[in-house]
Write a structure and sequence with these properties.
Number of helices: 11
Low-confidence stretches: 1-8
Radius of gyration: 20 Å
Number of domains: 2
Largest sheet: 5 strands, antiparallel
CATH class of the largest domain: Mainly Alpha
Helix content: 25-40%
Strand order of the largest sheet: 2-3-4-6-5
Structural class: alpha+beta
């Protein structure tokens, strides 16, 4: 997954303390993004290990604080437990999480299509509810992609007993307020999953997040999408500098417009397997594309396209999806990764 907009990062060293209080000691770097920030495993005497992201931008910290203040129980959004400043950079502290959805998607392609769609649609409904909660807080994520969705432990006491795990959105480094957020260049986010409209730049809104989720679910069901080879090659040859970035954005945008206007079959015999993508998922994307920008998304309609019974209470649906996710999906993941949390 290619994400542009990289910049130099400040680095924390193993064994380094963020400060004397709360006294988080850096254990090891566990992930580094292309935008310059890294996530570290850290420890504090007498407490469970945590994840520290450093450095973070003021806008990311503001988004996390807004969600914590306006919707502390927002499903699928990991609440930060602390934040501060170290060596001139901001950091946030969060609970540890397990594997990203890319790990799950790798295991789905061997499943029969009907079973695969059951898993993909369930995960899709859970992520849709998360995005609705984020949007109700006046925040747009702007970087919905599999590597920014990790499996973690649910905080709700009732869920912990029988359904302790759930997918969580992370990395609000590209997040913007909505309405009134600062415009974003088309290169920001993940080109593989950005919405068609976002390639042209401007203010992003909830529709962009929802379309991105649609592309993520297409990838989950079908594997590689037609523009993936191009973005991988573009990254390898260094197309993420200057005007070449804009050309890459337009190239991927045109491929997605081809899906919209001519369908998956237009990519030829080598991509014939994409025609197996469920019609409900194609209709989900069409619904994202046709909803007027000034109108709030109809999350209920989108949920129904992903298999939610019409009129069913969202909280009740969340409990049912949590149960299925833990019974049928978690066993597909590496238990060693889950044990790290």
């Amino acid at each position: 997954m290619v994400r542009s907009g990289a910049k130099p990062a400040k680095v924390l060293l193993d064994g380094e303390y963020l400060d004397k209080s709360p006294g988080y000691r850096i254990d090891v770097e566990i992930a580094r993004g292309n935008t310059g920030a890294a996530v570290y495993r850290a420890e504090r005497a007498g407490f469970e290990d945590v994840a520290v992201k450093y450095p973070v931008t003021h806008s990311e910290l503001g988004a996390l604080k807004a969600i914590r203040s306006r919707s502390p129980d927002c499903p699928g959004v990991l609440q930060m437990t602390s934040s501060g400043t170290y060596n001139g950079g901001l950091y946030v502290v969060m609970p540890m999480l397990g594997p990203c959805l890319s790990k799950l998607f790798e295991r789905l392609l061997d499943m029969p299509p009907a079973d695969r769609w059951t898993v993909v649609s369930t995960v899709g409904r859970m992520l849709l509810r998360s995005l609705e909660g984020i949007h109700r807080c006046g925040i747009v994520h702007c970087d919905v992609q599999p590597n920014n969705i990790l499996v973690g432990k649910v905080n709700d006491a009732r869920a912990k007993k029988n359904a302790p795990f759930r997918p969580f959105f992370i990395d609000f480094g590209c997040a913007r307020s909505f309405p009134g957020g600062l415009p974003m260049d088309g290169r920001w986010g993940s080109l593989d999953f950005n919405s068609i409209r976002s390639a042209g730049g401007g203010e992003r809104d909830p529709h962009d997040d929802l379309e991105s989720l649609g592309w993520v679910l297409c990838h989950a069901f079908a594997g590689e999408l037609p523009w993936f080879p191009f973005t991988v090659h573009a990254w390898e040859v260094g197309m993420w500098k200057g005007e070449a970035v804009d050309a890459a954005c337009r190239e991927v945008q045109q491929a997605k417009l081809q899906v919209r206007c001519r369908g998956w079959s237009s990519f030829g015999p080598s991509w014939a397997h994409l025609e197996d993508i469920p019609e409900q998922l194609s209709e989900y994307l069409r619904t994202c594309w046709t909803c007027p920008r000034g109108r709030a998304p109809d999350y209920a309609v989108l949920a129904e396209l992903l298999g939610a019974p019409a009129g069913r209470d969202a909280e009740d649906m969340e409990e049912a999806d949590l149960a299925f996710f833990n019974e049928e999906v978690v066993p597909l993941l590496d238990l060693a990764d889950l044990s790290l949390m």
